[in-house]
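Deliverable D4.2, example record:
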Amino acid sequence: MDISFLLYLSSGLFLGWSLGASDAANIFGTAVGTKMVKFKTAAIISSLFITIGAVYAGSGASQTLGTLGSVNTLAGAFMTALAAALTIYWTVKISLPVSTSQAIVGSIIGWNFFAGKHTDISILSKIVGTWIFCPILTGVIAVLLYFLVRFIIRHCHIGLIRQDCYTRIGLILAGAFGAYALGANNIANVMGVFVASSPLHAVNFGTLFSLSATQVLFFIGGIAISVGVFTYSSKLMTTVGNGIVKMSPLMAWVAVVSQALVLYLFASQNLQHFLISHDLPSFPLVPVSSSQAIIGAVIGIGLAKGAYRINWGLIGRIAFGWILTPVAAALLCYISLFFLQNVFDMEVCR
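Output generated by the structure prediction step:
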């Protein structure tokens, strides 16, 4: 692998680390916050299934992101990813679970403006629409699932010890599914801007399996996300797990499953093809925000339990972060590209 490419890719690796530090809280934050799953266990499971999801099913959402803006030089991709990563790093430092999707979309728009490229408004509106629709959909699914599971528990007369065991197993399985869906949906945020300019080649492992050049790139991104999970995600897990509303183990399971389902809906090419082939409405393959999804689920459950339980002050801070993130990333990217081109004389666009 070319050393210069690794230097350019470092910003994508930093963004992957930031995503792992921030968004692992959305997978296992409720489980760790309720002390049903240990952090180390959560980190191992998250890392493994994020990487599998990224390599196996990450291409769908990356195609949509590439349509929004095809960053066509390595230097431009480097700065686009770096601007998003720095924005996310700043929000992680102040313990706000913001959206990596919003950060990279803001950065791409900043690159489009600097490069004089057209921003496809139809694609942008589709992506922005999911920022509104995603937490609402997750909240609705969470409420319905919460009442369904509670009804089953009440009528099956499951003992407390057995219920506790089932809940722990359920949280681990739900977390694995959530991690897979996160990798499949959000690897586009980490490595999508490098797809057009990557010099990587396909790798063949004999008769076992092979990885395309894009899958190799996504595997590297998955490793970076995993490092972020292990090194810096524990603090945000507490914020998501109990900061917004006090979570019971049952509520934690419902929140994780609801979030995972929504991420999967917006990432699965197979599901989209199945729905279209049967003349059914399908979900667009776009990188949605796992932060918005899990918070939508937590708020939905909190409303079902009683609005007084919700920390609305924290919700307000998080919502402000969602608005600020794409704007800050776009401005930072535009200014940084200017310096990279005019001070360091590097080609950031063609």
